[in-house]
Design brief:
By secondary structure, the protein is an alpha/beta fold. About 30% of the residues lie in helices and about 25% in strands. The protein has 6 helices and 12 strands. The protein has helices at about 20-30, 85-90, 95-105, 115-120, 135-140, 165-180, and strands spanning about 10-15, 20, 35-40, 45-50, 55-60, 65, 75-80, 110, 130, 145, 150-155, 160. The longest helix has 13 residues, at about 20-30.
Amino acid sequence: MADQLRGKRIAILAADGVERVELEQPRQAVHDAGGTTDLLSLHDGEIQARDHDLESAGTFSVDGLVESASADDYDGLLLPGGTVNPDQLRMNSAAVAFVRDFMSASKPVASICHGPWTLIEAGVASGRTLTSYPSIRTDLRNAGANVVDEEVARDGNLVTSRSPDDLPAFCAAIVDLFSSAAQPVGAGSGS
C-alpha cells in the first residue's frame, strides 16, 4: 500500500483555525501511501492550527496561495475542518472557485467536519450524499444535500466524514478515493 498514491499530488486547502488533527493525519496518510501534498491557503507564511477550535495547536507552513493555484495541477483535494478554517475559505472567492473547479472536473475531493461549508458555498452540495459535523447538517440539507450520519460517506468523487473521531476510516477512504483518480497529473502524453 506504500505506493498506492505514487505520483499523485494532492492539494490541501486550509486557513487559520484549521483543526490540527484533521490536516495532520490525512496528510500523513497520503504521504504513507506514496503521494505528495501542497498546503494551499489564503496567505503565505504559516497558518494557525487549533485543537477543538479553542486551543492553539501550533502552525503549518503554507506551500502556496490558492489564488495562484489551479485544480489542473492536482490529482485530488483535501478540505480539513475546524470551525474557523472553512468559514474563512467560504468567504474567499479564489478558494470557492478552486473547490468548484475540482468538482466540475470530477476530481476527487475529501472533506471532514466543518469542511463541507466550502462545498456549500461552491454550489456543489446539491444532490450529493454527504456527512459532516452535526452542527452544519441543516446547512447541507438547505443546500440540497442528502445528509447521512455515517463515519464516511462516499458519493462518486466526493468523500466526507463527521469529526476527528472518524479519522481512521476517513484516512483509509481518502487513500482509496485518491488512488481511484485517473493517471497522475503530468503523467502520460499531452500533460
